[in-house]
Fold this sequence. Notes:
Blueprint: H1 2-18, H2 21-41, H3 46-76, H4 79-84, H5 90-117, H6 122-147, H7 151-171, H8 179-182, H9 186-198, H10 204-229
Amino acid sequence: MRVKMIYKLTRHEFLDFLKQPSLWMLVLLPILMSVMVIVLMNEPGLEMLLLPSWILFAQVMVGLMIIAPGFIEEKEQKTLDALLVSPFKLWEIIFAKCSIIFLFSILSQVFVYVLNHGFNVNLLAVLPVMIIGAILFIEVGLIIGLIMSSSKTSAAISSVVMVLLFVTASFYQQLPEWKNVLQLIPSVVVVENFYGVFEREFLPLQLGLMLLWLMLFTAVIHLLVKKELNK
């Protein structure tokens, strides 16, 4: 019974997403920018050097820029309150919202990969990092949404965090003296895992760090949701 209810809520979130062209642009922007930049630079082998950063860009763009402002807007418009007095639990509402964003994050990442590197079997090897990265940055966006009280503030903070994560992951190799510290940042950890897959290297430390960040953000969300329910 509850599974059917959650399915209906998720379907409603999906249809609501499709009605908002501004959200489509956040999904399409990483795809278009990655193709334009890689094509314009047109250097042999460059696409494999830039591809991890552009896949990451899809993760942070979709994960941060949709969930945080959207979640707070629902609180401001009392839509969330209406759902909470219904049979739905807060965790179920969060799951429905995040699952749709997760779907579009994966689609954006896959299109970035396919348009720049073609549809090949390596996509299956990259997919687990895409999935974990998508969840990781959706969790970051959700944490911002649970902490902030204004949609404008959350949108601004999400933008700053997104830019910092993307820029750090794109240029950390140019700062060798800071590399050991920067490699601990979630976006750099994800990019390092992408490089590992592309170069067919097993990187246990980077994989462990990625999973550690995932567990840490999940624990933070659990505490924030508990705090939200106690209000």
